What does this fold into?
Amino acid sequence: MAVELKDTYVVHGAVTTCTKGMRESRLVLGESHGVYLKNAAQVSVKDIKPGENIICFGGCYSLENPATMAAAMKIVKNVKAQTGADFEGRIAETFLQEGGEQTDAVRCAGECMPEIVSVKWDREKEDVSVEQGKNAVMGEATLTCKYGGIIKIETSGQPEM
It folds into this structure.
């Protein structure tokens, strides 16, 4: 009988996704808290540091990310330089639309540099501490990025049983 993700503890190497990211990533622990599950360091609710615990998702599609708009403007300048056409007023409808029938191929992505606004992972085991005052994270936990992305734990990182 398989255990559901929401009922599992999260460890170093768990797969994460962001609703505004281009690809999945991994949750990383730079240093162990001393608690291991199946030889992997266990994640605490406070392991949310960008670039240290939360790693780049390849690119960011968020319209709120200044890097995405900068990437779109770079395309506009290149097109204008090569063709003489000026379509700066159509950037949003051409490159930056969200939803609808648009595919990733026509969306513009900026550099992914997560900026976490959550104070901790939102799913924890309140009676299991990884460190004093820092509870264990459970599967399917989420964080929110400043640019509107929801970062979600997709796998626990534990080896398959």
